[in-house]
Amino acid sequence: MRSSSNPAFRNLATRGNAGYAGFGSPQGYPQGGVPGYGTDQAPPTSADRPITVDDVVMKTATTLGTVLLVGIITAVVVLNDLTLAVPLAIGGGIVGFILGLVNSFKREPSPPLIMLYAVAEGVFLGAITGVVQRFLPGVALQALLGTGLVFGVMLVVYKTGAVKVTPKLTKWIIGVTMGALALVLVNLVLWMFGVDMGIRSNGPLAVIFSLVMIGLAAFWLLLDFDQADQMIRQGMPAKFAWYAAFGLTMTLVWLYVEILRLLWILNSD
Questions:
Q1: Which residues pair with 50 in a beta bridge?
Q2: What distance in Å separates the CA atoms of residue 177 and residue 133, rounded to the nearest whole number?
Q3: What CA–CA distance (Å, rounded) separates 27 from 46?
Q4: How far apart are CA 118 and CA 96, in angstroms?
Q5: Would you give per-residue pLDDT tens digits along the chain (269 residues)?
Q6: What is the SS3 string spanning the chain?
Q7: CB of 89 closer than 8 Å to CB of 125
Q8: Contact 7, 99 (CB under 8 A)
Q9: Contact between residue 139 and residue 132 where contact means Cβ atoms under 8 Å apart
Q10: Which of 65, 122, 129, 187 is 20 to 30 A distant from 147 in Cα terms?
Q11: pTM: predicted TM-score of the whole model, two decimal places
């Protein structure tokens, strides 16, 4: 497995060569027994068997479903009491950020922590969505549909091989992302001193920057797809499907926020 692009997969780089690849094809175990198990021993547990596409799909559906459900509930709460928007957004954002870091650097996936991350992100997204929906009805649904559309398009792009995920492309995406995040940080610091670069406010520059960020998030989906694909090809244990789900959830949360921001800018003139 090449060096990981998503922090959620960073600790997996050496696992594919640490014995897991010896499980054989992801379709099943070699005839005559499972590595580490005698032919007369009990079959491996679901956590020990090789990861499959179904594992990734089910775990991703679980995390995204949690984000969506918690987000809807939080948005309804905020619509009924707008004063709760700020504390819920800040609280959810901080907890989500901390859990995101913890999950990213854990050597073993922790389903409870990943689910807690999904809950925190649901609160954060629900809070900001409730505010947007209050002032611009219908925009939140457009952002959700836009996120789904980008996901579908990038999945097709990856599956058809229209864009190959190579080490060079991976480094390019990471480099541009780090540059963009550094620019956001500089803009935040300057904003605290009363200077606005215009990349996160209204206006043409903000629109262009939002489009760039949406494009970057879309390309990160390609990296996430590739990492999940490599995990399946190398027959890593099924429990690592939680890492794939976590990485995809992180990227989709980012993508949704950027699309929502763009629609807010375009509709707030």
A1: 237
A2: 29
A3: 14
A4: 8
A5: 444 445 444 444 434 433 333 333 333 333 333 333 333 444 455 556 889 999 999 999 999 999 999 999 999 999 999 999 999 999 999 999 999 999 989 888 999 999 999 999 999 999 999 999 999 999 999 999 999 999 999 999 999 989 999 999 999 999 999 999 998 888 888 888 877 787 777 888 889 999 999 999 999 999 999 999 999 999 899 999 999 999 999 999 999 999 999 999 888 76
A6: CCCCCCHHHHHHCCHHHCCHHHHCCCCCCCCCCCCCCCCCCCCCCCCCCECCHHHHHHHHHHHHHHHHHHHHHHHHHHHHCHHHHHHHHHHHHHHHHHHHHHHHHCCCCCHHHHHHHHHHHHHHHHHHHHHHHHHCCCHHHHHHHHHHHHHHHHHHHHHHCCCCCCHHHHHHHHHHHHHHHHHHHHHHHHHHCCCCCCCCCCCHHHHHHHHHHHHHHHHHHHHHHHHHHHHHHCCCEHHHHHHHHHHHHHHHHHHHHHHHHHHHHHHCC
A7: no
A8: no
A9: yes
A10: 187
A11: 0.81
Is the CB of residue 36 less than 8 Å from the CB of residue 215? no
CB contact at 8 A, 180 and 216: yes
Residue where the block lists tokens 């969505």: 129
Q: Which pLDDT does position 15 carry in this prediction?
A: 40
The closest alpha carbon to 128, from 162, 96, 155, belongs to: 96
Cα 111 from chain centroid (whole Å): 15
- Asked if 115 and 95 count as a contact pair (C-beta separation under 8 A), the reply is no
Nearest to 173 by CA among 121, 227, 125: 227
Is the CB of residue 210 less than 8 Å from the CB of residue 143? no
Helix axes 241-267, 53-80, angle to 10 degrees: 40
